[in-house]
Write a structure and sequence with these properties.
Blueprint (H helix, E strand, L loop, with lengths): L1 E5 L2 E3 L20 E3 L1 H17 L2 E7 L5 H10 L3 E5 L9 H15 L4 E5 L10 H9 L3 E12 L4 E8 L2 E8 L2 E5 L11 H7 L4 E4 L1 H4 L34 H13 L5
Parallel strand pairs: 1-4, 1-6, 4-5, 5-11, 6-10, 7-10
Antiparallel strand pairs: 2-3, 7-8, 8-9
Length: 263
């Protein structure tokens, strides 16, 4: 079974600069890492491959430096990678991003199952995975907990999904897209040997020259949603340290409450 894993490189720190004109995150200025819930999707894909055979191909759309996250995913165990990078794809919203990812997976070909994290740590919209499925016209199940079993012969997969304090077992026809909850499994780690081996694994670079998407569907022009403003929230809370005996602290607290201070 051939599995595609869609990952996103997100900032390691929350101290990210914002372009004052476009209001987009300036990602080049910060270190990137694999989005946390995408690691759970990688683990689910690798576990299924270990049972069923086939290969796991990891995809990401981003600037050239996103290759480091793809190499890390291959060090964890993914077999191949695809870097989707082109200035034409820049400043894309979730829909424009989904269109490009879907087209890249179709361009790569021979994929039975697509998995990704349910939410990204920077945007947390939960939209890209389901949108990719809709663009590709395949079924999807969001915020999965686990894969129970899969049959390439019957072209079906059985999965567990939590919904409103209940756990449901669902059977879905392949091909399908699944998104995984953060923390639903224990992602494996790379070793020194696997990190070295990842440098030799196949990595395909795809630009718009290969997938040939019109400008009206990609990047800023193909994005129906725009960020029109951004600001840093101001925290109006304050802290006051109290000292003294137990009775003195009690009296000070009573005085603060009497003044209507927030404590």
């Amino acid at each position: 079974m051939n599995i595609a894993v869609l990952i996103k490189q997100v900032p390691v720190s929350n101290k990210v600069s914002v372009d004052p004109e476009t209001h987009a995150l300036i990602r080049a200025s910060v270190e990137g890492m694999i989005n946390p819930s995408d690691r759970n999707a990688i683990e689910a894909a690798l576990a299924l491959r270990d049972q069923q055979g086939g290969k796991v191909v990891v995809f990401t759309m981003g600037p050239p430096q996103a290759e480091s996250s793809l190499r890390e995913a291959m060090a964890i165990g993914c077999d191949e990678a695809c870097l989707i990078t082109d200035r034409a794809f820049g400043r894309a919203d979730t829909l424009a991003t989904a269109r490009v990812l879907a087209k890249a997976v179709e361009y790569y070909g021979d994929i039975d199952l697509i998995v990704c994290g349910a939410l990204s740590s920077d945007g947390a919209t939960g939209q890209v995975g389901p949108m990719v499925a809709e663009v590709m016209d395949i079924p999807h199940v969001s915020e999965m907990r686990a894969i129970v079993s899969a049959s390439e012969e019957r072209r079906q997969i059985e999965v567990l999904k939590d919904l409103e304090y209940q756990t449901y077992t669902l059977q879905v026809n392949l091909p399908v897209l699944l998104t995984f909850q953060f923390g639903c499994n224990e992602p494996r780690l790379a070793t020194l040997r696997s990190t070295r081996a990842a440098k030799k694994k196949p990595l395909l670079t795809v630009t718009n020259e290969e997938i040939k998407m019109p400008s009206t569907l990609i990047g800023a022009e193909g994005s129906p949603s725009r960020v029109i403003d951004s600001w840093e929230p101001q925290d109006g809370r304050k802290a006051e340290m109290l000292s003294g005996s137990e009775s003195e602290l009690t009296q000070q607290l009573k005085e603060l409450l009497a003044k209507g201070e927030e404590v």
